[in-house]
Amino acid sequence: MQKNKLGHHLLSLARYYSRVAPPPPAYADPVIRVSNNVAYLGSPKQGPKPRQLLSLPPFPGHHLPGKNSATGRVTAISWLKYYFDEISDSAIQSHFNNGLVKIESSNPNAADSFIERDGQMKSLRKIKHNEVMEVGARVWVPVSIAETRVSRRFDCIPSGTLHPNADEIDYLRRLVKYKDYAILVLNKPPKLPVKGSLPVHNSMDALAAAALSYDYDEGPKLVHRLDRESSGLLLMGRTKESISHLHWLFNDINPAKSSCKAWNDACDAKFQRYWALVIGTPKENEGLIRSPLSKILLDDGKTERVILAQNVGLEPSQEAVTEYRVLGPMINGCSWVELRPLTSRKHQLRVHCAEALGTPIVGDYKYGWFVHRQWKQMPRVDIEPRTGKPYKLRRPEGLDVQKGSVLSKVPLVHLHCRELVLPNIAKFLPLLSNNAETLSPGLSGKPDLLRFVASMPKHMKISWNLMSSYLV
C-alpha cells in the first residue's frame, strides 16, 4: 500500500513534454566529443527542447465570415485559416500533414502529449484537417506558425518605408565622415548592402534616406556603389543639383566639359583607391589591367556572374581598366595590393584580381573558390634573406583574433575603399548652376578638391597586424 502511494506521488511529479522524452539527467557520466579535430570532455548533450505551443481561443461555434453556412459545419483547417489569415494555405496544410496541430482531449488514453494550462495538465491529441470543430474546442499549434505570420508581414514592407530606431540612427551617423549642404561621405562596414530591394530592408540607401536627412526634407541618394561584401568610402548626394553632377562625375563617358577650368581640373584629379589582400602575388609589382568584362547567366538561369570578355564579337562587353601596385612582400602566401579603378564596372576589381592577375581577393569565394581550396592558412615560417634566420612571429598586444581575418576558417572579403578624392561640389555648384566662368569671392578661398581616407574594418586590421608581425 505504501509503495502504491509512493508510485502515485512520483507520477504526479513527472514532467510532461509535448514532443520528446525528457533530457538525460545532469549526473550522467561525461563523454568525449570531437569538434574541429579537438577532443573535449564534458557532460552529454541535452536532448531537443520541447516544442513551444500556442493556444487558439476556444471555438465560438458560429459560422465564419465568408464561409458557406449551408452545411453548418466548420472544419479544423477552416478555423486555422480564418485565425491565421495572413499565412499561406500551403503552410497551414503542411502543419496538419506533419501532425503538429493538436486539440485538447477529454480522453487521456487517446492523448499523445500533455500541456500545462491554468495549473492543470491537459491531454492533447493530433487533429486532422477535415475534422469538424465543436463549440469550445481549443486547438494548439506550434509557435512557428505565428512567427511565419510575423515574418511575412515584414517581408511585405518596402525598404523605402522603414523607420530606423534611435540606435540605428546613432550607428549610421557615426559612419558619416564628412557632411556639407551638397554631399555626405560615409565609411560603409562590410556585409551591409548598398542598394535595397523588397527582400533587403537594411540597405544603406533605405537607412540613410530615413536617418541621414538631417534638416532636409529628403534623405541623401546614392551616386555610386560598393559591393555588399566590401567596405570603405561611400559618397551620397544631398540635393538634386549635386546628385546630377555626381552622376556625371562617376559616369565613364563624360559629356562636354564646363567652361570653368578649375572645375575641369578638379574632375580630372578625381580617383578612388582600394586596398586588398590577395592570395599569391602579381608577377609585376605594378601595372595597368585593361580587360573588358562581360556578364553571363549560370545554368540555373538566375545567378549572374562577371567574367573577362573573350573578344570574339559574339557577346556584349564593357571596357574595364584598373591600375594596381603591390604594397609589400608576399607573407604566408598573401600580398597586400593597392587598386585604382579607372572605370566603374560591377565586380571589376574582384574579377581583375582573380582572372587577370591570377590572385583572387581573400574571402572572395565567388571568383576565387578554386584557389581558396588550395590555399593553406596555417602560419608558415619564412627565412629572412639578410640574416638567414626565420622571421619571428609576434602577435601585437591586445589583438583580438575574431572571425573574418586570415586566421578564420572562412575569412571575409578583404577589399576596402580606403581613399577618395573628388571635386568640392559645394564650391562649384553655384558656378555650374548659373553657367558662370568665375567663382564668387566668398567661394574662391575654399579648396578645389576634397580628400578622404577611411580606416579598414576590424577583420582587415587584424589581418594587417598579423601579417606585419612576421616582419620583426
UniProtKB/TrEMBL annotation:
Pfam families found in the cross-reference section: PseudoU_synth_2
GO MF annotation terms: pseudouridine synthase activity; RNA binding
CDD domains: PseudoU_synth_RluA_like (cd02869)
Residue ranges of domain Pseudouridine synthase RsuA/RluA-like in the record: 183-354
Gene Ontology terms: biological process: enzyme-directed rRNA pseudouridine synthesis
Protein name, per record: RNA pseudouridine synthase 3, mitochondrial
Lineage of source species: Eukaryota, Viridiplantae, Streptophyta, Embryophyta, Tracheophyta
